[in-house]
Structure to design on (277 residues):
């Protein structure tokens, strides 16, 4: 039976763990060849070793244009093209009251969450335009469709991802390229585990807390977001572009305030990191 991504090549940023790793696995299950990118070398290489011959790892800092360009070029040289670009890499970033937010921490957050998406779109479009086809899917957030669900910089960046998705889609449609976003609600990853419990490995507590706050009574898992990204990148969504698909168990029907505004000012990175470096 043919897979939904048979013959397609994807680049996924931030794919060493969490939603990115889950998406890489799901795409390969559906027949894709995947370039896994991340700053976490060991974790990225481990994911690729588990995924098999159809996966490759490239170290990428999404804030650096040369890294994104190199990953896209690697996909073309290694696998013969690029059909799907998934801009997934992210951090929670700057937290705390807006009156106390350090501008350097704010800028570092925007660099990952917005500049990284822009660069992914730019270099995917560079190779997709001549082919007159392709799908670009970026990670927004429920914090990108309403206020009060995330820290200020995160919320601003994710709203911008939604806007950039619409803007890029309006340009690239003429080239047969679809540009969409997926907006996850609370999802069990090391990042949310760290935010909830202060321990990036405490998935049990994260699952229970997210479940309790879920209108459907279940916790979101990386596979739930991976399935949405799969739809956005396969031919089943050929008539869909400029859309942000919210996957949140109905959370945005009501919404609950985020805890980040009252936290001690600083920055939150993947797996418990707190520094800018």
């Amino acid at each position: 039976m043919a897979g939904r991504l048979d013959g397609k090549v994807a680049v996924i940023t931030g794919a060493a763990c969490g939603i990115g790793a889950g998406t890489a696995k799901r795409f390969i299950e559906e027949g894709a060849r995947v370039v896994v990118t991340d700053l976490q070398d060991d974790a990225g290489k481990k994911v690729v070793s588990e995924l098999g011959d159809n996966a490759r790892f490239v170290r990428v800092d999404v804030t650096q244009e040369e890294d994104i360009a190199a990953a896209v070029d690697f996909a073309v040289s290694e696998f013969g093209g690029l059909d799907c670009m998934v801009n997934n890499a992210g951090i929670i970033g700057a937290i705390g009251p807006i009156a106390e937010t350090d501008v350097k921490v704010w800028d570092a957050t925007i660099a990952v969450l917005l500049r990284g998406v822009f660069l992914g779109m730019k270099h995917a479009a560079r190779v997709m335009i001549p082919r007159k086809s392709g799908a670009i899917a970026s990670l927004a957030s429920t914090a990108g469709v309403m206020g009060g669900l995330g820290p200020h910089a995160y919320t601003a960046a994710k709203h911008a991802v939604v806007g950039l998705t619409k803007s890029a889609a309006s340009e690239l449609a003429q080239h047969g390229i679809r540009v969409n976003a997926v907006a996850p609600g609370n999802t069990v990853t090391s990042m949310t585990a760290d935010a909830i419990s202060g321990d990036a490995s405490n998935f049990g507590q994260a699952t229970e807390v997210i479940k309790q706050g879920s209108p459907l009574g279940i916790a979101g898992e990386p596979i739930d977001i991976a399935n949405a990204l799969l739809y956005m990148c396969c031919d089943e969504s050929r008539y869909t572009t400029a859309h942000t698909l919210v996957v949140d168990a109905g959370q945005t029907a009501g919404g609950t305030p985020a805890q980040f505004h009252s936290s001690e000012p600083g920055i939150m990175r993947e797996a418990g990191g707190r520094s800018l470096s």
Summary: Residues 94 and 106 are 6 Å apart (CA to CA). The chain has eight helices and nine strands. The helical segments are 18-29, 41-51, 65-79, 103-128, 152-172, 190-197, 203-212, 222-233.
